[in-house]
Automatic annotation (TrEMBL):
Function in brief: Catalyzes the cleavage of thioester bonds from S-palmitoyl-CoA or S-palmitoyl-N-acetylcysteamine (unbranched structures) but does not have activity against palmitoylcysteine or palmitoylated proteins, branched structures or bulky head groups. Conversely, hydrolyzes both long and short chain fatty acyl-CoA substrate.
Its EC number(s): 3.1.2.2
Keywords: Glycoprotein, Hydrolase, Lysosome, Membrane, Signal, Transmembrane, Transmembrane helix
Family, as annotated: Belongs to the palmitoyl-protein thioesterase family.
The keyword Methyltransferase belongs to this UniProt entry's keyword annotation: no
Transmembrane segments: 12-33
Location(s) in or outside the cell: Lysosome
InterPro entries registered for this protein in UniProt: AB_hydrolase_fold
Source organism (scientific name): Glossina pallidipes (Tsetse fly)
Major subcellular site: other
GO cellular component, one term: lysosome
UniProt name for this protein: palmitoyl-CoA hydrolase
An annotated Gene Ontology molecular function: thiolester hydrolase activity
Length: 277
């Protein structure tokens, strides 16, 4: 798999580099609305500011299944990693970290990613112009519907029973459904030195925008902040543990549209680079 070879090749090069100058390699994961090329400016900015290499990964559109073997990022080595993901890429990157109990990722940056799911017309219409949020559950919460990545993190607050029954992705990585992997998903996240969740009210695509911080709608479509939701209060995936140790950083930045987070130099310098140093 080309994707895997790139990761390994790159990691070996960076392993040596890290040893000498103590910068960490950075893996960047793009979102669903664009390809790896959309991350060029973010990569350039990181390289020019931190004198280190960045790597953009090309993702398949479907994130239905994540096999840790596809992502063996030298788990036995002592190379530490920073990882940053935009939009769907941030969800994919987070899930990947969760499947690696012995990972050596130090910093995970989620750049306007629907960590608690997505439920909104703005986003839906960018990908499926003819579908309506209110009724799309009929399609998404089915075996066939789950073959699209969006359906994997579609979280209809009024159809939670169907969400849990059909979604093959989000309720698992958020430990809303317990399996034999749930404890690994939790401990893997608590290995991080820092988790940075970036989002903002003018994003325009992530709905509710607080999903970028693990906040989400309740059954009457009121947005419940992340620290009042069960995923946090019950420490289901280790967010509370991270917060208690000062390792959870919540960034709410206004006036940034979804497609600007990774392109706007000021945003990159202000909210991303400081966490990679
Ligand atoms: C990682 O570091 C530890 C302690 O410094 C060492 O014992 C171990 O052999 C190293 N592992 C690798 C794969 O280099
Ligand atoms: C646990 O994770 C492994 C590896 O990703 C997977 O093969 C297995 O099906 C998972 N088990 C459950 C119960 O989800
Ligand atoms: C949702 O949250 C609001 C505000 O906390 C509350 O008034 C409402 O009863 C909640 N709705 C449900 C269905 O839990």
């Amino acid at each position: 798999m080309q994707f895997l070879r790139n990761v390994i090749k790159w990691n070996l090069i960076l392993g040596a580099f890290t040893f000498i100058v103590s910068y960490k390699p950075v893996i960047i994961m793009h979102g669903i609305l664009s390809g790896a090329d959309s991350m060029n400016s973010l990569q350039r900015e990181i390289e020019s500011q931190l004198v280190q290499f960045g790597k953009r990964l090309e993702a398949g559109k479907r994130i239905k299944r994540l096999f840790p073997n596809d992502w063996k990022i030298a788990p036995g080595s002592n190379t530490s990693l920073g990882r940053s993901g935009h939009s769907q890429g941030g969800l994919l990157a987070r899930a990947t970290i969760q499947t690696m109990p012995n990972h050596n990722v130090k910093v995970f940056i989620s750049l306007s990613s629907p960590q608690a799911g997505q439920y909104g017309t703005n986003f839906l219409h960018l990908i499926f112009p003819d579908l309506a949020s209110r009724t799309v559950y009929e399609l998404f919460y089915s075996k066939v519907g789950q073959l699209t990545s969006v359906a994997n993190y579609w979280n209809d607050p009024r159809k939670q029973d169907l969400y849990r029954r059909y979604s093959v992705f989000l309720p698992y990585i958020n430990n809303e459904i317990q399996t034999s992997n749930s404890s690994i998903f939790r401990t893997a996240l608590t290995r991080l030195d820092k988790m940075v969740l970036i989002g903002g009210p003018d994003d325009g695509v992530i709905t509710p925008w607080q999903s970028s911080h693990f906040g989400f709608f309740n059954g009457s479509l009121d947005v419940i902040p992340f620290n009042e939701r069960e995923i946090f209060t019950s420490d289901a995936i280790g967010l509370k543990t991270l917060a208690d140790h000062g390792k959870l950083v919540i960034v709410a930045k206004p006036f940034v549209h979804h497609l600007s987070w990774h392109r706007n130099r000021n945003v990159i310098r202000e909210v991303i680079l400081p966490h990679l140093i």
